[in-house]
């Protein structure tokens, strides 16, 4: 699980948005920001945008204050696609390896 968090933060630091165009954030994702703030770890929880399996997805990362933090992956229609991490250390989304199929695009919000 710690490797998954390191991957998220490493990708965050090393990646950049290629075209520098602002990415559209759906209203339902925007409305989840204050809701998620209630469970996110101050200073390490975040909302990021990734390209995954050909679509932009939104990653609500709980952060580093939990023993087994999770990252909730939503599509642009606000459907929950998967939950990464957690007690079982899940590293797949929709049956695909997250590390092999996700590309960091943009940081939206840090809690």
Q: Mind explaining what this structure looks like?
A:
- The protein is of the alpha+beta class and 111 residues long.
- Helix content is 25%, strand content 34%.
- Strands 4-3-2-1-7 form a five-stranded antiparallel sheet, with helices on both faces.
- It is globular and about 35 Å long.
- Residues 1-18 have low confidence and may be disordered.
The succession of helices and strands, N to C, reads HHEEEEEEHE
Strand order of the largest sheet: 4-3-2-1-7
Proportion of beta-strand residues: 25-35%
| Helix count, DSSP H or I runs of 4 or more residues | 3
Largest sheet: 5 strands, antiparallel
Shape: globular
User: Unreliable runs, pLDDT <50, ≥5 residues?
Assistant: 1-18
State mean pLDDT (0 to 100 scale).
87
Radius of gyration: 13 Å
Strand tally is 7
Structural class: alpha+beta
Percent of residues in helices? 25-40%
How are the SSEs placed, and which strands pair?
Layout: H1 2-14, H2 27-37, E1 46-52, E2 55-61, E3 70-74, E4 80-85, E5 92-93, E6 96-97, H3 98-101, E7 102-110
Characteristics of this structure?
single chain, 3 helices, disordered N terminus, 111 residues, 7 strands, alpha+beta, five-stranded antiparallel beta sheet, globular
Brief characterization of the structure:
By secondary structure, the chain is α+β, with helices and mostly antiparallel strands.
């Amino acid at each position: 699980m710690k490797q998954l968090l390191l991957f998220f933060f490493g990708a965050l630091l090393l990646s950049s948005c290629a075209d520098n165009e602002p990415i559209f954030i759906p209203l339902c994702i925007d409305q989840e920001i204050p809701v998620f703030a209630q469970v996110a770890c101050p200073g390490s929880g975040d909302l990021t945008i990734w390209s995954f399996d050909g679509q932009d997805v939104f990653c609500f990362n709980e952060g580093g204050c939990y023993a087994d933090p999770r990252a909730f992956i939503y599509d642009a229609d606000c459907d929950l696609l998967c939950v990464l991490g957690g007690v079982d250390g899940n590293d797949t989304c929709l049956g695909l390896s997250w590390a092999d199929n996700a590309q960091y695009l943009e940081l939206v919000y840090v809690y």
